[in-house]
Amino acid sequence: MSNLPPSQWLYIPKPNPQATLKLICFPYAGGSARSFSDWQNTLPHYVELIMISMPGRGSRFSEPPADCMDILTNTLLDELTPHLNADTIFYGHSLGARVAFEIQLKIKKRGLQGPCHFIASGSANPGKDRSDKNVYLLNDADFIEELKSLNGTPPAVLENEELMALFMPVLRADFKLADTYRYTGPEQLSCNISVFAGKKDEISEQAQLDWQNYFSSNFSFEYFEGDHFFIDSHNEQVGQAVNNIIAQIHNGNLLTQVS
């Protein structure tokens, strides 16, 4: 068993103190650990899976949601620091990719050990201006229509007024994080980066390819079937791609750039 105290921010289904590699996963807006939990069954024995558990959902449903990127990432980094004692892979989907990127900037600033590989999944680059959308400011009816268009919330939830009344504050907080965050600094990170993209995602290919501008090491790009939420609709295939990266790291191979 791990000697580390439990954290409400981190869900670790199978603590592994002997792990030589840790896969740390950050969910999309409105998402949870369920997008990554099935991967536990296929990961190599030397990998520990750590999933970020956000307030306002699951076992933390009664807690107020986070809506400030700076406070959120400072808190998460404090929680993650004891776990940065081995090689790590950061995986973030959509909003989760920008949260993971911001944490990496703070890791570098604090002089801590950053990830050896970053997977930015279903996300435009962190410098893209999203302030023109401001989805979180829409009235309830328009906000729900936007959720429908994204195709990531079950219709049974969207059509249930009581459920939506419960989840609306969480979703608005997440969209506030997504719509108001933009990185404008000159910093480049040195770890390898892979970008995963859905073939039918509304995010442009270029907006995703531009992630490479924020990293100085090896870059790869891979398409998956599905829309913005391909991580859920094609979870097994994404998990296999993650395992391929893990195998390359374990074997000491570097990814080559894909244009």
TrEMBL record:
State the source organism's domain of life: Bacteria
Q: What are the BP-aspect GO terms?
A: lipid biosynthetic process
A molecular function GO annotation: oxidoreductase activity
| Statement: the UniProt record of this protein carries the keyword Oxidoreductase | yes
Ranges for domain Thioesterase: 22-242
Stretch forming the signal peptide: none
Q: Which UniProt keywords apply?
A: Oxidoreductase
Enzyme Commission number(s) from the entry: 1.1.-.-
Which family does the similarity line name? Belongs to the thioesterase family.
Spell out the protein name for this chain.
Linear gramicidin dehydrogenase LgrE
Organism the protein comes from: Pseudoalteromonas holothuriae
